[in-house]
Structures are given as structure tokens and as C-alpha cells.
Amino acid sequence: MLLTVDVGNTNIHLGVFAGLGDHAKLVHDWRIHTDPHYTADELAMSIRGLLGSDVEQVTAVAGLSTVPSLTREMRVMVGKHFGNGPHALLEPGVRTGVPLLVDNPKEVGADRVANALAAHGRFGGPAIVVAFGTATVVDAVSARGEFLGGAIAPGVNLAVEALAEHTVTLRRTELRAPRSVVGKNTTEALQSGIIYGFAGQVDALVDRMRDEVPGFDADDVHVVATGFLAPLMYDECETLTDHVSELTLDGLRRVHERGKERRRG
Asked: What parts of the sequence cross the membrane (predicted)?
């Protein structure tokens, strides 16, 4: 089985895949809180604890990290705790088959590349990927699987944390859609502003991309939601067409399989 590890700023998303290609299936996945001070051994201990007896079935690891302090630790962890692989760590310079049509390809986060690869592999193109995480990232993927660039905005959690510093009520507020956009109390007003405000932001960015990018105005363009906050936002956004929680993990799987094919060649 293949272990996939997506180290993000807020969460670490883990998944185990069985099978290859069209027959690949995500059999388990977990999310744990990101601690930027994790050592390689501590990271391995957390992962192996979740895997349980399945750890003996892991034959390879595919991973990425958007947290600089954990990038090296993950590299050490993979080599020390999961044998010789073959492993695939998605970093600048790794061949993914995704052309990066941007000014500086090295600036593109590995998670965005993985999402583009998975979105094109699943849905074809063109496609728009909306990742609801620490930041809200809206990326365009061409019909040929090219990464065209995108938009990055502060995520829902960042806004909540900023408000919480100055609004005592927010600390007791559950993040969910209120009864109405017109809140009848402070809690509902905060819920409305956060949930519907961010939904409107996403819809506006998606609509602008569809208007401005050639070929993105067709009815068959998939707008794919992913990220740990996607379940909160999916039903509130009018432009989203699909929700794939494991999109980044699937992209890592595809990177791993491409690497195996190159080695066989």
C-alpha cells in the first residue's frame, strides 16, 4: 500500500491507497494538527500510531510539505522509518507532468501542483480548484493539464482568529450557516459575515476566472472544492460543482505512479 502525507500549515492529511491507476482506492485517511516543531521521530510516531497494524503493508510513501520546518523532518522520517521505498517527495524540480505556466514555477506550492494533477486526472479540463485551508486558493487548470496560476486569499480560520482577538462573542460561536443572512443576534451576524462573506468571495473569483480565461466559460468546467474547510463552505458556494476531500492525496498518488513508470522505462 501507498502512504500519502500532505503536510499543511494547519493540518497534516494522511491517506493510504491500495491498488494502482484506475483501480487505486483510498482505504483510510486521517487529519492531525500540524506542529511545526515536530521532529522526524515524533512525526513517524503519530503516523505509525494511526496506521496500526497496516504499517506493515506500507511499501512506499508519497508526500509534500508546505511548512519549511517540517520539509526536512519529513524527508528524514521517510528514509528512517519506512525503508527504501520507492518514495516520492513532491518538491521543486520533481517531474509531475504538470506544466507550470507562471512567472516563477519554483514559487508554486507543491500542494497546488498535486491538486492540479489530480483535478485534470479525474475530470479532464479545463478545471478550477478551490482549496479551503489556511488560505483560500483558487487555481486554474487548462484542458491540457497546465497549471495557469490562480488567486490566494486569507482563509476562513485566519479571519476568525483575527476577529477573536477583539470579539469575545466569537470565541463561543460555532462556525456554521445561520438561519438567515440577516443575523438576529451577534452570533448569527458573525456566522453570516464569515460564511456568506467567504462564499461570495469564492464565487466572485471563480466567475472572474470563467470570464477572463479563454475556454473556461463552458458548462462542463468542473469547479472542485478540497481542503479541510471544504465541508463547511461547499453548500454555501454557488459555483462549486464537486467536492473531493482527498484531492491532494490523489495528486501525490499520481506523482508516485508517474515516478514508478519512469523508473521502469
From this structure: none
